Amino acid sequence: MKPSSVVQCETFPCVDVDNGRFVVPGVELDPDQIRIVMVSEAAPAVLEDWFYAGPDALFAETTVQAFRDAGEDVSSVADILDLGVYLTTAVKCGKTGYGVTTETVKACSQLLERELGLFPLVRALMLMGDVAIKAVNAMARRNGEPRVIPTGSTYKLRGGNYSFREMKVFPSYVQAGPSFFIEKSKRRMIAEDIASALAYVRAS
User: Which end of the chain is more exposed for a tag (fewer CB within 10 A), N or C?
Assistant: First the structure.
């Protein structure tokens, strides 16, 4: 199954993103093997930096390093998939500015909801950054469910007991992109959160 064959945007309603950089993972996988979904922020500035674009792609490079920081012996996104971890973004188009509006996050959360529905055996949901957190909260509100992650600074929220549709939820920081190499304290916390999510899944 390729998620990109199921998750598509037909209307492209968002005005603050570049829909020419719309991307959903097109990797062939067995959805029943996925136990963790890691949701980052948005599509990269250039699609050559996408998670699944090859070993030199920026998103792939930083994410592999994040898993290595967490103690995992991985060298590629394929190795991360072999751990049962699926990588995607909350916003499927590329940003045109520093951030994205709440309206865009809400609109694209419908695609993320469809994407999550492809993986019936997921046990952990990693929300890498504020946009991913907002997207899942929007998804919950749209369906009359309680807020998943409360308002607050991520460093205060980490380690809390959060759940969404039988998945344990781990709020963390963005691991995909150039900022990963800049903020060492966040890099350490990302590694801790990845290790915690993997340990939870392996114990369950």
Answer: C
